[in-house]
């Protein structure tokens, strides 16, 4: 490493104005960095963050408390340049999940009190797609999910993110405190609108008037978030130690970062446009572009690469055939489905993504990206694929991706090596493999019939199941290289 830049945290502590749900790697390396930069630039200490974990992540909460709420973010621009930032803007951390003895809600009352505090004007979320408890394809609240059912039965001691938001808003309403703005920073299409649906549908289960008040009074702006922040590995910690950073709460990411937000904050917000945040009136085109091009490519690499025993994104894009697949997917199957503002150069965007994937300082594990496929596929591939089919185009790359994902959910790669399938629907998928594993055609049909994932219009599109089945066969019989060559052949 030839160029290392150190940036200390702003001096002093401030007032908490934001509560964040989902204290994971991404929040620490994205939102917290923007707010730290805002604090340093403006000197305004009014937008400190209380960050909470609701499910897992208690060690990080306790670790940050022990470390006096300071941690580091290493931003790598390739292997020659790294910026080491100290972050101090997270000033309070909480854990409201299940503790070691199985009891829920360690800091729950303190968290709800903080969310009810009139000084808190924004609640942000990165709880992963499944943390909203919406059916992935239709975006409706999963009322019968056990966690949501528990929040319906016992709304004052919520366990889910939507449950916490509903209870906090209910308490603010009773106390005459105006509602905070709810800002989802998860990789979902229309993430604000989806969050609104989760929150209002859950509120309606307890009190129709509360649901109407939320619908009327609460702002749920959408946002597009982008920064590649892989889960930390031992190797990452070792490299930080070599750079003089001994920090168990540190996180690494790429230097690139983007945040586009719809400007709808009735109680105010930090003037973070000075720190690179793009405030817009409609975020949808950017969100869809990022989901279909970046995340769609990521998912292609995740399932195809994992099946072939490839470990990281960097390793995957070291293969020319996979890079060719991504280019073709992005330019022929994703870009034509996007309606971008004039002047957007999608070919240049595709190339910039390939460059970012080739960052040799990140160990972005394909198995991490492969997680929760059922929650990710509709917005990354399936809606775009349907749009292409509707105009008579072919979708060989997406069909290969779908075949690879189906095969991936068997929990064994093409060499027979087993891995855990981490997905809320993993048990359903295991059963489908058990029942139809011997017949690719039946297996594909059974998967396409899972309407929580596949929009019926796509599943029933004439010929779609056949294309997926054919490429599934090639993939399992001839391996990754065979399947990639197969889709390169012009159609007869
Ligand atoms: P992480 O694994 O470090 O953290 C996951 C967070 O989600 C933890 O705080 C965990 O407690 C919480 N969570 C998981 N399931 C939950 C549930 N059912 N209910 C409530 N909370 C739950 O992951 P990371 O990197 O922080 O990513 C989280 C999300 O951030 C992603 O799913 C994505 O939507 C978004 N994101 C991540 C990027 C990245 O490169 N890591 C980039 C862009 C967006
Ligand atoms: C990845 C994303 O884990 C995944 O599914 O595709 O988290 C990706 O790294 C980010 O969206 C980049 O902004």
From TrEMBL:
Molecular functions per Gene Ontology: oxidoreductase activity, acting on the CH-OH group of donors, NAD or NADP as acceptor
Residue span(s) of domain Mannitol dehydrogenase C-terminal: 283-475
Keyword Cell division: no
PROSITE patterns the UniProt entry points to: MANNITOL_DHGENASE
Gene Ontology BP terms: mannitol metabolic process
InterPro entries xref list: 6-PGluconate_DH-like_C_sf (IPR008927), 6PGD_dom2 (IPR013328), Mannitol_DH (IPR000669), Mannitol_DH/Oxidoreductase (IPR050988), Mannitol_DH_C (IPR013118), Mannitol_DH_CS (IPR023027), Mannitol_DH_N (IPR013131), NAD(P)-bd_dom_sf (IPR036291)
Iron-sulfur as UniProt keyword: no
Pfam families: Mannitol_dh, Mannitol_dh_C
Alphabetical UniProt keywords: NAD, Oxidoreductase
Residue ranges annotated for the Mannitol dehydrogenase N-terminal domain, each copy included: 17-274
Protein name as annotated: Mannitol dehydrogenase
Organism of this sequence: Litchfieldella anticariensis (strain DSM 16096 / CECT 5854 / CIP 108499 / LMG 22089 / FP35)
């Amino acid at each position: 490493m030839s160029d290392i830049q150190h940036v200390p945290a702003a001096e002093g502590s401030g007032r908490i104005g934001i509560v964040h749900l989902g204290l994971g790697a991404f929040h620490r390396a994205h939102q917290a960095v923007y707010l730290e930069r805002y604090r340093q630039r403006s000197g305004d200490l009014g937008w400190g963050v209380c960050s909470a974990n609701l499910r897992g992540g208690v060690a990080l909460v306790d670790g940050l408390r022990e470390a006096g709420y300071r941690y580091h973010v290493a931003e790598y621009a390739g292997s020659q340049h790294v910026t080491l930032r100290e972050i101090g803007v997270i000033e309070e951390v909480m854990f409201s999940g299940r503790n070691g003895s199985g009891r829920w809600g360690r800091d729950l009352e303190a968290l709800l009190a903080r969310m009810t505090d009139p000084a808190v004007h924004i609640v942000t979320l990165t709880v992963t797609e499944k943390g909203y408890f919406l059916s992935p394809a239709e975006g409706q609240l999963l009322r019968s999910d056990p966690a949501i059912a528990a929040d319906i039965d016992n709304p004052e001691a919520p366990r889910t993110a939507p449950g916490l938001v509903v209870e906090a808003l209910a308490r603010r309403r009773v106390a005459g405190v105006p509602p905070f703005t709810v800002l989802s920073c998860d990789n979902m299409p229309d993430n604000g609108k989806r969050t609104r649906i989760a929150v209002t549908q859950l509120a309606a289960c307890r009190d129709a008037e509360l649901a109407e008040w939320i619908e009327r009074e609460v702002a749920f702006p959408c946002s597009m978030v982008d920064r590649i922040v892989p889960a930390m590995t031992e190797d990452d910690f070792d490299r930080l130690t070599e750079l003089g950073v001994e920090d168990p709460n540190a996180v690494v990411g790429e230097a690139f970062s983007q945040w586009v937000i719809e400007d709808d904050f009735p109680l105010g917000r930090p003037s973070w446009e000075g720190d690179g945040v793009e405030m817009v009136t409609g975020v949808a085109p950017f969100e869809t572009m990022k989901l279909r091009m970046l995340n769609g490519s990521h998912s292609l690499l995740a399932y195809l690469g994992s099946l072939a025993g490839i470990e990281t994104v960097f390793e995957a894009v070291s293969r020319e055939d996979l890079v060719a697949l991504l280019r073709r997917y992005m330019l022929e199957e994703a870009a034509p489905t996007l309606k971008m503002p004039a002047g957007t150069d999608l070919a240049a965007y595709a190339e910039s993504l390939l460059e970012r994937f080739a960052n040799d300082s990140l160990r972005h594990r394909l198995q991490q990206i492969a997680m929760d496929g059922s929650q990710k596929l509709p917005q990354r591939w399936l809606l775009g694929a349907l749009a292409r089919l509707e105009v008579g185009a072919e979708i060989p790359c997406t069909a290969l991706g779908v075949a690879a994902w189906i095969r991936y959910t068997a929990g064994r790669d093409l060499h027979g090596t087993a891995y855990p399938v981490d997905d809320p629907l993993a048990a359903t998928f295991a059963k489908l493999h058990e029942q139809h594993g011997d017949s690719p055609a039946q297996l594909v049909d059974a998967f396409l019939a899972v309407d929580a994932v596949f929009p019926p219009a796509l599943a029933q599109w004439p010929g779609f199941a056949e294309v997926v089945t054919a490429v599934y066969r090639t993939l399992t019989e001839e391996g990754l290289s065979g399947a990639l060559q197969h889709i390169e052949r012009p159609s007869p």
